[in-house]
C-alpha cells in the first residue's frame, strides 16, 4: 500500500500588496482560510515580504488518490473574496514532486547535529 497521496503538486508564489494584507492578524486569518480548503496542502502568508506561498493539488495533474483538486483561478477567487488581489505578473507556478518537496522533509528530516554532544567520545559519535 502506498501512503503518499500525490505524485505531482503545484508550488505557487503569489505577490500581493501589503496594504491589502492590512496587519499580521489579518494575514494569519487569510492563511487559516486558505488552509481550510482541502485541495490546498500547505499555505503560508508572508506579511513582511508581501507574498503568499501555496502548495496545492491541481486539477491538471493525474494523482493516484481521490483527494480534492483546485485550479489557480479558484484560488484567486478565494483571495478576491477575502479582499486580497494578486499583482499582475506576480504569480509564479511550478510543478514539483510531492515526495521530495514535502513528504521527505516531514518524515525524514535532515540531521541537524554538526558536532558531537558534550561528553561523547569519538567512537560514540561515529555510531550515530
At CATH level 2, the architecture is: 2-Layer Sandwich
Taking all residues together, what is the mean pLDDT? 85
Q: What is the first-to-last residue Cα distance?
A: 31 Å
Instruction: Classify the beta-strand content into a percent band.
Output: 25-35%
According to CATH, the fold-level topology is: Alpha-Beta Plaits
Stretches where pLDDT is under 50 for at least 5 consecutive residues are none
Approximate helicity band:
25-40%
Major sheet summary line: 4 strands, antiparallel
Radius of gyration: 19 Å
Q: How do the helices and strands follow one another from N- to C-terminus? A: EHHEEHEHH
**Secondary structural class:** alpha+beta
Number of helices: 5
Number of separate structural domains: 1
- Backbone shape: extended
Q: What is the strand tally?
A: 4
Account of the 3D structure:
By secondary structure, the protein is α+β, with helices and mostly antiparallel strands. It has one domain (8-127): 2-Layer Sandwich (Alpha-Beta Plaits), CATH 3.30.70.100. Helices cover 33% and strands 27% of the residues. The chain has five helices and four strands; from the N terminus they run βααββαβαα. It has a four-stranded antiparallel beta sheet. Strand 2 and strand 3 form a beta hairpin. The radius of gyration is 19 Å and the shape is extended. The relative contact order is 0.23.
Amino acid at each position: 500500500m502506498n501512503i503518499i497521496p500525490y505524485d505531482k503538486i503545484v508550488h505557487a508564489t503569489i505577490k500581493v500588496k501589503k496594504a491589502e494584507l492590512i496587519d499580521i492578524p489579518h494575514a494569519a486569518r487569510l492563511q487559516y482560510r486558505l488552509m481550510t480548503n482541502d485541495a490546498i496542502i500547505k499555505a503560508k502568508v508572508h506579511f513582511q515580504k508581501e507574498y503568499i506561498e501555496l502548495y496545492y493539488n491541481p486539477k491538471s495533474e493525474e494523482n493516484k488518490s481521490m483527494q480534492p483538486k483546485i485550479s489557480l483561478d479558484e484560488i484567486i477567487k478565494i483571495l478576491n473574496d477575502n479582499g486580497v488581489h494578486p499583482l499582475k505578473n506576480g504569480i509564479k507556478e511550478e510543478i514539483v514532486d510531492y515526495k521530495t518537496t514535502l513528504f521527505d522533509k516531514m518524515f525524514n528530516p535532515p540531521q541537524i547535529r554538526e558536532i558531537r554532544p558534550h561528553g561523547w567520545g569519538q567512537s560514540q559519535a561515529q555510531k550515530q
